[in-house]
Amino acid sequence: MGKQxxxxxxxxxxxxxERPEPLSSQLHLLPGRNESSCxxxxxxxxxxxxxxxxxxxxxxxxxxxxxxQMTAPQIAKHTGAHINPVREELALMVNAGLVHxxxxxxxxxxxxxxxxxxxxxxxxxxxxxxxxxxxRGKAWLERQDKExxxxxxxxxxxxxxMKAGKLIPPRHELMTALFGSV
Length: 182
Known about the structure:
This protein is mainly alpha-helical. The protein has helices at 7-18, 35-45, 55-67, 72-79, 83-96, 133-143, 146-164, 173-179, and strands at 70-71, 99-106, 113-119.
């Protein structure tokens, strides 16, 4: 068991938990204590960490959305903020009714639909239906090169026959020369 916590350390820990900064950046206030021991002590005291405030990000998001409708990655690129706090702030703003999902647009790389946000109250656009496995398979097949796909399928068929024992692979030329053909 580790050393006992003093009353002064408990007070410092309470102050640390009231600040929005992460615990790891404030460990210098509690010398000799590591992050896990601080979390365990805070749990024993019934402390909860104050949620980090992204007040600066909220202002940047509002400024960006006043220009036009944007997706979260577009807002992050426009404002220079990291994508994670932008997404968190957008989720909070949608729940508060400050922003709504105007439409869903396909992502540039993988065509997965992503939300496009607009400033102000409004109804959130319904999410598009997901493609079935059959539709995804058909789209994948259309993207494949026909000749490469034919060669790949031929290789699959040969390996399946070999596993089932229905196809005996041809002998190597050197083996045939040394031991004869069977």
